[in-house]
Amino acid sequence: MSHYLYYIYTGTALHGPVFASLKTVITIQILRIIVPPGSRDALFWASHIVIWLNIVFCTILAFLGIFACTPVQKSWDILLQEGSCLDMDGINIAAGIVNIVTDTIVFLLPQWVICRLLVSDWRRKAQLIFVFCVATVAIAFACIRLIFAIKMARSDDKTYYISVIGFISSPEMMSEFLIISFLVPPKLVQSIWDGTSKIGYSS
Question: What pLDDT does 203 receive?
């Protein structure tokens, strides 16, 4: 059981940094699509606020997960009697709420542009619509994860609900990786192509 709980502890510690990195990359890519270079409009500042709030929150969440118990070993060693732990149920529920809020904001950012037809390039519109569709999946799983976090707070069987929450986190994370895999490669290929063209032209 201790080995199983140790893996859960490790996954919890990595959860915050991984999701912070994913959402930061997604928001930056959306920012590059919807905000012209050099512009400092409301969307620019809203995106940066989302990025930094998400980084700060996920960093705090990671530290709370790592140092939830004193000594730290008590987080996974059920035979250790001495020491104490924080109320992780409240922290998990708060994390679920903030996660839904940040996912929703990332979901709404491109819709602002789509609704106002500020993007004339059909390829950019396709990218934004794709983000729109996949983000709904991420939000749905984030809501389901919050529901199980609330159920876990009311139950004595923490191990079962932690397993369910970890399982639900996988498709949520996968959807965010899917968004990145759609947004980043075209820019990478274009950058390589432009660099190759410049080298060929200069030679």
Answer: 47
